[in-house]
Structures are given as C-alpha cells and as structure tokens.
UniProtKB/TrEMBL annotation:
The lineage of its organism: Bacteria, Pseudomonadati, Pseudomonadota, Gammaproteobacteria, Alteromonadales. SMART domains: EAL. PROSITE patterns: EAL, HDOD. This is HDOD domain-containing protein. It comes from Neiella litorisoli. Residues 201-391 form the HDOD domain.
Length: 415
C-alpha cells in the first residue's frame, strides 16, 4: 500500500541543510491527522520509512529528527533505531519523571542524540538539560525576547548543547534568532514540510497479532515466532531491514528466518514485534498475492528437504522473496540492496548466470513451472534433484494445507 510522510529541512547559520524532521501523515493532506495517538504515529512513521527503505533515503543521508511520546520512550522504541541516523525528540507533553529520566539516560549512554522539543523551561527539566544535545524553541509560542536570558544560561552551562529556533516564519524572526545565538533554524520562512510517498510492505494483521501474543509472555520461543514470520513476506523483509539498519554487527550472511531471530535475540525481537504491532493495519495487498508467496515458499521448502535435508530454510526464503517485487512494487535489485540476506540467495533471486546449476535455482524454477501447470518442465527440473513428479505433487499438497491453515488464522480468534 502507499504511505505518506513529510519532512522539513533544518538549516545551520550558513543556511546549509543539516538534518530533516520527519512527520507522520495519513494521506496527501500535509497535516498531522486529528485523533491519532502520538505513540501510534511514531510507530507507523518508523515502520513505513525506516523498515522499508531506511531513514537515509527519506532524509538524503542526513540525520532524521523524530518525535517520541512518553509511551514511545518507555516502550524503548528508540533503541531499535540506528544511533547515527536519528535524533530523539522528546515531546513537550512528556512528564519529566524519574522513569523517563532513566530511559533518556540509557539512550544518552548508548550514544543517541537527545532533543527537547517545543521547550518551555520548568525546574523539573533541569536534570534533562545535561543529556540534551539540542533544544528546540517554538518562537511563535515563546517570544524571542523572553527567552534571551535562558539561551545565554544554557550556552554558558552546557556549551555542547545546540539551540534551534522552530516555526521561523519571517526574515525578521530569522535575523532576531540569529542575533540571539541560535545555531539552527526551521520554519515556513525557509520551506514548508515536503510530502513523501512510498510503498509499505504491510504485514497480515492476524500473523502480527499471533506474534504479539507470543512475545508478551515473559519467556517465549523464538522458533514459534520464526514459524509465524516465515509465512509473511513483509514481516520477513522488515526483520532483515532491521538487522541491516546498523544496530547489529553482521558477522555472517542471513540465510533463514530462524537464524535472523537468533541473531538479534529475544529482547530485540520483542521490541521489534511490539512496535510493528502498534504500527501495522490490515494488509491492503490482495490476499491471493500473499497466499501465492506463502504457497511457493512452502513448496520450495518441501522440495528442498526431499532433495537434501537442511536446505529447506534457504529454499523457503528464496520462494518467499521471489514475490517481493510484486508486494513492494519496487525492482528486485533495489529491494535486495537494503536487506542483510545471504549474497548467494540474492544472486539466485537476481537470476545471476553462475547460479544456474544451484539446487536452489532449480527448486525455484521447479516451483514456477509447477504453478503454471507445465508438468513436462517441472518434471525435468525435478529429475535434476533426483526427484519424481509424485514428490512434487506431495510437496504441493503440503504447501496448500499450510496456506489453508494460515488463512484460518484470520477467521478464528487467536489465543
């Protein structure tokens, strides 16, 4: 489905763009939608931008400023994001409590940059000032003349902290803010928020709900999560984007969903699932397209295991991602560049000449021929795997049963 967001440039004193603030949008209307909870808005914004194409694409390689509500902070959503690509904006209505302070300290120690948004000074915020690297003043809400002593005091006590004037609407306001010593500027005088449009790989609501129920338990089985993820190409894609976001040192290529989840561990999996569950809605892609992707993936897995034990996980990913162009509405090469998938599997999906004799290529070709009803060609491919037509028929029946079972999830209450 299409998604919308907006970005607004942030300028330094030389009027060079140094960062962008990202805003959640629900339609082509360039305004924040009425009635949307800020926590939900942030989760959706991250899911639809960062876990699809990455902040760098939407921010031209510059840092992204993203608003975080109290719920988002305490849910530890920022920890799921690359610290070198984001600035954590703490919304003005966040309560400066001990619990929030503890979370902000953890983010600061982990290397994240903290910004205080729409800052209005109160003594309760004193202990946060030493952690902030950016303080934003809404100069329409707080007149410049009234904050001059505060700016001077902040610059004296916290020389590393930078000050940003937002909602600068005239040249006069810009000149006044610059004279007061502001470091950065943002507002309609420079540019309005620029609309962004993209394609979101949305997950099936029922599968997300099932994984959500699993990870809410104090102890949960990663293997059960993997089994659910294996049957939703969008979840698998976003998982690999998450791993490839820069948070984790990639020491070996990812060749299965189980390996991907073991790689990040239970706590990161929990946070990832909780954020996606908050963000996602029912998939707008035709159900039949998702069914076809799952059917092909399971068929490939069954054929692979009949050919050689242990090859099934890789074959499943190849089958699943062979539909990614249709689901993401983007070229295969562009999608594969952004995920931490095993290079061998990427080459197979890109149909590179040197993969022609690979068992995984033969398995994928077998699946495609079988789906078309080309019995002769699928049988010829099967012979290369030392399999016969009955083996293929059995694998396909198993795959159909699995698709039926997962469609049943949408019709039955999950426990």
């Amino acid at each position: 489905m299409k998604f919308y967001a907006a970005r607004q440039a942030i300028f330094n004193r030389r009027l060079n763009v140094v960062a962008y603030e990202l805003f959640y949008r629900e339609s082509e209307s360039n305004t924040f939608p009425v009635g949307v909870d800020p926590h939900v808005a942030t989760s959706r914004l991250i899911s639809r931008t960062h876990f699809n194409n990455g902040f760098k694409q939407y921010c031209s390689g510059k840092p992204a400023l993203v608003n975080f509500s109290e719920s988002s902070l305490l849910s530890q959503i920022p920890h799921s994001l690359p610290r070198d690509q984001i600035v954590i904006e703490i919304l003005e209505d966040v309560t400066p409590s001990d619990r929030v302070l503890q979370e902000v300290r953890e983010l600061f120690r982990a290397g994240y940059k903290i910004a205080l948004d729409d800052f209005v000074y109160r003594t309760e915020w004193n202990r946060f000032l030493q952690l902030a690297r950016l303080i934003k003043f809404d100069i329409q809400r707080t007149p410049l003349a009234s904050i001059k002593p505060l700016i001077e005091n902040i610059k004296k006590q916290f020389p590393k902290t930078r000050i940003l004037a937002e909602k600068v609407e005239t040249k006069e306001e810009y000149e006044q803010a610059k004279a007061l010593g502001f470091d950065f500027f943002q507002g309609y005088f420079f540019c309005k928020p620029e609309m962004l449009e993209g394609t979101d790989a949305q997950a099936r609501h029922a599968v997300l709900l099932a994984t959500y129920n699993l990870v809410l338990r104090e102890e949960f089985d990663l293997n059960k999560v993997a089994e659910l993820y294996k049957h939703d190409v969008s979840l698998t894609y976003k998982l690999l984007r998450f791993i490839n976001s820069g948070l984790f040192p990639i020491v070996s290529p990812i060749s299965s969903v189980h390996q991907a989840l073991r790689y990040i561990g239970t706590e990161e999996t929990r946070k990832f699932v909780l954020m996606l569950f908050t963000a996602e809605e029912l998939n707008s892609k035709p159900r039949e397209l998702i069914n076809m992707a799952i059917l092909r993936a399971k068929f490939c897995e069954e054929v692979a295991e009949k050919h050689r034990s242990g090859l099934g996980d890789q074959a499943f990913l190849v089958g699943l991602f062979s539909f990614i162009e249709n689901i993401m509405d983007r070229p295969m090469e562009e999608v594969l560049e952004q995920i931490a998938l095993d290079p061998v599997l990427k080459d197979i999906l890109m149909q590179q000449p040197d993969t022609k004799g690979s068992p995984l290529t033969i398995i994928l070709n077998t699946a495609k021929y079988y789906e078309k009803g080309s019995w002769h060609h699928s049988g010829m491919e099967a012979k290369k795997l030392n399999l016969n037509y009955d083996d293929l028929a059995g694998a396909y029946q198993t795959a159909i049963k699995l698709v039926d079972r997962y469609n049943q999830i949408d019709r039955e209450p999950l426990r």
